Amino acid sequence: MIKLFPDVRTERERRLAICLALIAGYVDAFSLRAFATYVSFMSGNTTQIGVLTGQGKLFSALAPALAIVFFVAGSFAGTWLTGQRYSPRLLFGLVSILLVVVIGLAQLGALDAAVGIAILSLAMGMMNATLSKVGGEAVSLTFVTGDLSRVGSHLALAVQRAPLPDAQGPWDTHRRRAARLGIVWSGFLAGAAFSGAVVSYLGVLALLPPLVILLALTLFLREAHRTANPAPPEKPPSVALEELAAQSRSRAAPAKA
Description:
disordered N terminus, Growth Hormone, Chain: A, 2 strands, mainly alpha, single chain, 68% helix, two-stranded antiparallel sheet
């Protein structure tokens, strides 16, 4: 069946992607202010490691290296859990617990910069595994370089009037996908801006807003995507119409005989 409008599932995924990108930008900006290290922007950390190593500042390169190691570990854990058909709500709960640990250690005066970087990088790596697509489009939640690259690609293809191979319906176009990815990027930017405004006043308690959002997702989220016995992906309308015509011809053939 050809869909004329985005389905409910796609709209839920879109809203969730914006929400998670906002959290990622917020936590990344918090870590940058508190520890001078990114916990979701691993491209920046990789560049930082290279520059510091080239300058002979090997000890200073340990912080961004630590962030990369724990981000990869978090991505591994999150992907493994989703691969085992666990609900994304479990991951949101685990990320919430990690934020609570950071806040608690800070309140006790026991939060070392290395520990904070490790825990927050682990949390962002796990969160990145909770949603990989919105409709038929891949999205990046905790880093936005890929999203911006795809925005440019979709805009160029829209100008060329190129068809969208995996279109979910007549409404699904290159322009619409570029706009959707642009909104996800805007969510990341807004989160970073809000974090930058409040960290100076709240300190580590600035992590409370993303914690509250994650707890709400853990308790009340209606699944944005299927995690068990997923239905096969819907075929593009052109393919569906061709198959329907072939079936009609096959049924008509015996009658003529």
